[in-house]
Amino acid sequence: MQYDPQAQMDDKNMLNDMLNTEKQLVGVYASFLCECASQDGRQLFAGNLEQTAQDQFQTFRLMQQKGWYQVEQAEKGKINQARQTMAQIKTEL
């Protein structure tokens, strides 16, 4: 196979790939944590989940600072509505 410099990923694509991988790992570790019966296993998965979530957030912040990940600001009305919905769900539990 011949080296193709055009086949390399640029920084934006590498960070995007990292971000998506970290998001997937957070989900996997959360599932493992919820389904693990062993206390040692739960501690391991909880630690992995926390570290991966921190890594994901750092990657997200870097992409955001470089202008590669735009976030829309939520309207106050939508935030308040979400709070009310979550409070109602909490009381029903």
What would you note in describing this structure?
This protein has helices at residues 11-35, 39-65, 76-92. The mean pLDDT is 91. The chain has three helices and no strands. The chain has one domain (10-92). The chain starts with 10 loop residues before the first helix and ends with a helix. Helix 1 (11-35) runs antiparallel to helix 2. The chain is mainly α.
Proportion of residues in helical segments: over 70%
Number of helices: 3
Helix/strand order, N-terminal first:
HHH
In total, the number of domains comes to 1
Task: Enumerate the spans where pLDDT stays under 50 for 5 or more consecutive residues.
Answer: none
Mean pLDDT, rounded to whole units?
91
Q: Main sheet?
A: none
Shape: flat
Rg (C-alpha, Å): 19 Å
- Based on secondary structure, the structural category is mainly alpha
Strand residues, percent: under 5%
N- and C-termini, Cα separation = 59 Å
How many beta-strand runs? 0
Helices and strands, with pairings:
Blueprint lengths: L10 H25 L3 H27 L10 H17 L1
Helix pairs in contact: 1-2
Q: What is the gist of this entry?
A:
This protein is mainly alpha-helical and 93 residues long.
Main attributes of the structure:
93 residues, mainly alpha, single chain
